Amino acid sequence: MDIKGIISPLITPFTENGEVYDDGLRRLLDFQIKGGVHGLWVCGTYGAGPLMTIEQRKKVTETCVDQVSKRIPVIIHVGSSSLDSVIDLARHAEAAGADAIGSVPPFFYPYNEKEVLTFYKRLISTVKIPRVCL
Length: 134
Hints:
about 40% helix, 4 helices, about 130 residues, 5-stranded parallel beta sheet, alpha/beta, TIM Barrel
């Protein structure tokens, strides 16, 4: 699947209790597709990925892949300050059927160039689907 054109950064809707709002997410996905976007960037930017639990991020991934049903590419942001979490999320995204993953470099603590390069090498070796490193 080609990844090109308008890639919409998808917000993640939540209930008043802070849980992922599954029905709202599904409606938002259909709205985006009907609006003509060419792909979705999930759990990044205002998608609040780094603020969610790993389980919530996995649920959002599964819901998006299921609802989109290969109509357009789904790119899952797996970035975190924990490499173990990034790898877990990347493997899950691939197994769930995402078209690609993306990640920011590790954050919170200062990392030198060699550490950031090691981070991306480990991430890239984790999955076979396309990877976008930001």
